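This section describes the prediction task in plain terms. A model, or a person checking by hand, is given the sequence of a single protein chain and must write out its three-dimensional structure as a string of tokens. No templates, partner chains or ligands are provided. The sample shown here is typical of the held-out split.
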Amino acid sequence: MRIKTMIIFSILLSLIITATASAARPVIKSDRSYFDINSGLYILNGNVNIQVGNRTITAGQAKVNMATLEVWGTGGVTVTQDELFFSGNNVYVYGSEQRAKIDGGILFRRPDLTITADRVDYSWDSKTAVFEGNVQITQSGVTRCVDKATYNVRTNVFM
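The expected answer:
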């Protein structure tokens, strides 16, 4: 009886570990891709789609370092997660720091809020977005312009 319990426990533990590991692994799709052995980067071209959990990054072209989870993307970049939506021309994702920098014609949207800017630095850990350069905020039908705005996504409050 004890051996049977150990076997069942081992099988359940294996299933849990496998499910957890596959949930954290990114799913990467593109029209063309190759691994550059000299740089250690995956080079992706055309309809790039990178998904990690419920976070998705799309771009025309991208380079990905799987060891550090760094992503450099250009050309029609979007970053989405749940109800959040960022778009711009370029993105650099610091995977180990849970941070993304997007620049070039930033558009941030969520229900009842739209922000445009030259660039944004977003932290998934603190849920804080720092918008800089020609920032235009439209919230509840009211628009205002500032040079810099810090927005907490979790609390829906500007700081």
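For orientation: The two ends are 60 Å apart (CA to CA).
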